[in-house]
Amino acid sequence: MSAISSLLLRMIIAIGIMGCVPSWAGTTLVPDDFPTIQGAINSGADTILVREGSYPEAPQAWRPVTLRGLGGQRPILAGLAISNPYHWPAVSWSFSDLVIQSRVQITTAWPGPRGLSIEFARCALDSGYTHSSDDPWDLSYFLLKNCRVGGDSYGRAAFVTLLSDTIDGGVSLGVTDSLNVLDCWFRGGPGVALDIDGDDFPGLIQRCLFEDYGTAVRATRPYGLTVSENMIRRMNDFGYISMFCTQSEFRQNTLTGCANGVYFYGRDMDFHDNTILRMREVGILIDLADNVRVNRNVIGNCGTASVLVRSGQLAKLRFHENTIYNGLGSGIVLERLIDAPDSVWIQGNIVTGHARWGLEIGSPQAKVALGCNNWFGNGFGAVDRGTTGPNDMAVNPLFCNLANDDVALFADSPLVGHAPCRQIGARGVGCAPPALKAIDVASRRSGLEVAWVFEAALPVDSWLERASQSDGQWDSLGAGSSAGSNSFVFLDEAVAPDRGYYYRVSWRNRGVVVHGVRVVGTWTDAGRLSSVSPNPSMGEVNVDWVLSRPGPTDIRVFDLGGREVSVITRDLFGVGRQQVRWDGRWNGRGLAPAGMYIVRISSGERTSSHRVLLLR
Question: Which of 14, 117, 227, 568 could form a disulfide with 86 if both were Cys (CB 3.0 to 4.6 A apart)?
């Protein structure tokens, strides 16, 4: 049978299956024009609008069609099948604003058509999707945009785009031409969140969040793949696996709380500006690598080696300006390098706080070029089976806040401006030592108020000290109360009027006590040296007085006949303004009657009397 006869036979069979398909193509509405979605598809309409509601059917989209849901609540379909059993001129399927409960089945059995396109937008694929084909060119383009995908999904296409999707379970993709995965949330599953396989495909995985999988991304045979600005958390195996890669880039990603960070097997790879923290085992694992650059990464608190190069042949490896800290193994381990003379450069790194070595060289034949590294505080020492390089050092790097994984450097770090080194570590200068920006003393009615403020990136542990003379003994008054970010206020009430007092602020700068400049203040707002209030009073009366030196004070209340009504206090008091309260009672007689009373204040400095009117 000729090819033309075969094609005609297939078209006749197609018409027989379809029934009488109208020659027109347009837009139809379900359930208004057709009670079922399948009926609308069979009618030949190009665009099918579906009202919100539940549709207990799994329509067969056996020809290219646009299917779009209407209403605030997306229509719910029991399922969906997409296929191309006939050689239709159109090649595009589009689905939007739908909820599809069972797994979407995509089959491309017809061997003739190529370049098919399938798009889902704002859909919920509750059970995921499956594309049955071994040939990625069956589908030219596959798009998921603003969709929620539940369950494991897999398929193949030349061009794949996932944009702003929420993925429950994992997605396995076969790709030949290009991959783009942008702004997606992969939120949990037992296996691999995004498993990509292809043949030298480029692509971009960017600004995605991966949580609670075995592995976040596994890419096999990519060429020119960029993985950037993603957050990867709590993986039970690896955060990122790259197999047989060429000319790929892994940059500005953050990995935390995984079993392992990154595994790379291939050549021409850039790891730079990533943050890899709290891996239970290895931060970066490299196998059979050639021309790999690991630059400006922060790798901290790993359970074994922070960076492990397990094997390499004719390898060119560069480790520049990384900050690697606090691992339970060694910082960098070069386990086995074959035929690799003069091919490893380790320069400008901070490798500190490891239980074993800063650098562990397992290959005696490997020649490693070192320089401008800081090997500080590693348990076994700086370099095993080797010597440190020119301008290497072992000094405290002075991180801004290591407890919170802030490994930028203080401006006065010994690593800053260390000639002839350009930059040491991944972050550079990020903070300055605490600096006392201002201190001020003001006279208030209750005493001298001292306010001070720091210019600092972190909270400052500070306190106020006072001396009676410029060269006298300094006594600590306390930390004061916070008046804002690193701003403090202390009210010193133990002061005498018209007498100078010296104040200074002290603080701790990375464990060292620093004293600020001295300032002097005089209490000039003492006002009256004694008073009673309120006057007249309906009940209780406050008695205030000022002492310029410590001593006893006797305060009593008398009536106008000179009879003693109450002994308010007989006690020792310190310097400054003092206050006690008369409760308006006659000693042993209950409430004092209404009338005029005299309050007498006697101290070693003076005796004063005040009349107070008591109302009832």
Answer: 14
